[in-house]
Amino acid sequence: MAEQFGTQDIIICKDVNKWYGEFHALRDVSLSVKPQEVVVVIGPSGSGKSTFIRCINRLEEHQSGDIIVDGVPLTHDVRNIEQIRSETGMVFQQFNLFPHLTVIENITLAPIQVRKVKKAEAEAAAMELLERVGIPEQADKYPGQLSGGQQQRVAIARSLAMKPKIMLFDEPTSALDPEMIKEVLDVMKELAESGMTMIVVTHEMGFAKEVADRVVFMEAGSIVEVGTPQHFFENAQHERTKLFLSQIL
Amino acid sequence: MTSAVSVTHKEALPPPTERYTVLGWLYHNLFKGWFNTLLTLLSLGLIVVVLRPLTHWVLNTARWGVIPANFNLIMRGQYPADQAWRLWLVLFLLAVVVGFVWGVWSKQVQIALVAIAAVPLLLMLVPFFDGGIRINLLLMDVLGAGGYLIGRRVPPRHSRVGIFALLAYAFVMLIILRGFTGEGGAWPSVPTTLWGGLLLSLLLAVFGIVFSFPLGVLLALGRQSKLPGIRILSVLYIEFIRGVPLISLLFMAQVMLQLFLPAGAPTIDRVLRALAAITLFSAAYTAENVRGGLQSIPNGQYEAANALGLNAFQTMTYIVLPQALRAVIPVLVGQFIGLFKDTSLVALVGLFDLLGIARVVTANPNWLGTQQEVYVFIAIIYWVFSYMMSYASRRVEAQLGVGLQ
Description:
The complex is a heterodimer. By secondary structure, chain A is an alpha/beta fold. Helices cover 39% and strands 24% of the residues of chain A. Chain B contains 17 helices and no strands. The chains are: A alpha/beta, B mainly alpha.
């Protein structure tokens, strides 16, 4: 299906292709995301969904096609990459917190070093973020002392500290024990309701149904179907989509 | 048919402890079963067989007089006796600076205060020291305590002053030792060829370690660089240095270093040449150790740093290196301990470090045949310093939580 690219779209991906050596990981992927939209990407493993969102902030490099984030084209130009990275935040499946720094140091490191914010100001902002994600009392602990759900919430706060316009989530709850998934999803839901543009790769269908504005199904490197959650879960068109959904739900 | 399920909560109890009396401990650990008893008896027999002649030698036959008679030589080489007060000055300043730096950093790193303060006190027990030396040792502890109290008053945000204090001390120490006025002045120059004994060994080891560490870190980073020129140069350097023994580097430095300078440049000090060889040698090994640490950092750390917008330098400085270095502390300290003992090789290139002085002492006709006593004493000195470094390393590791998550 053809993507309509409006000039107000905050992310525009057009015919993006990526190869890992001989393996064609992303095949002519096209997607546009409007500001404040929540897009959930689902699909079987190996479908390229993580690769796709990692291309958006240049953690992976795409070989052909265009990616334009907030008007800035993603090219080899380092300045463009840095600009895009300053506007996108990423939350990883493995949290990737810095184990040798306390929670508050994890959150304030980037604002202090990159944005040159003063330490007191950065810490005040960090405490606000910790309140927002629900764990202000953990500020002086080390990541190793927190549970998985708490660590992921710290990771979300850490990304939010850089005031990004877009948040990318790469299977944020896949490494969590079931009883901790809800606390993280609640934070993400609050974030969506506050108007953040989000692209979430996940297997949590409940989240997709409740929070997503659009759901994207990817398989074998291409986008198979895109639609509203309602369309998706009640009225999927493609055979492969229906097959996948029948395996998950 | 329903069965009742107990819902009473079982209280947590402490684990059962086994307590032995002394005899009980001896029995359980040494004499339980005939095999263990046999091993115990054999070991005891072995210990007696080895210790008896050793103790006899130590207490009766050995001529320990050689040590007090040559003590000054062993400690400072041929540093002129009338300038020895400068060595004490250097030690006093060291005590103040160490105390100060401790006071400043005592929240970050807590190497046992007691252990280091105990060293001068323990040294006061050495039998052949005269009263003057003992007073000086006591003074060192007093000055150290004073430095500590001053250091405590420095607020944590100024804790960088600790590094400046150490750098300033190093500089001042070298000036004091070297001297700068003429013959009749207050600080006559003492050429480095006269520096010897433990003084020289410690200087070579400390400066060798301090200079080779940053160089090694840079090499390790260079080896991982994406720029092929830097990477190739780093690899060549590391592999060349690691392929030759330190003694050959020392010989090369003594002979060849001067050739690298333009003609007419002043002759490089022989101690400096040896120090250059030691530094370059240690840097290559440090580089490989640090590289091991760098490889242990998961990719996710780099990705998270990139996603947050940190550049390469910031990522290295704040995220990767702190973790990598923490992981390789045991290996690095082991290497530094080895380096300290390797400085004894300079005896073979004409410098009179601790080992070189030992050979001079045993060559003295008054003290012929005292090699064993002298070398045992030298060995004890090496052992004491090595153990102190090892102990400090364990404390730093415990403080930084190395090995835990």
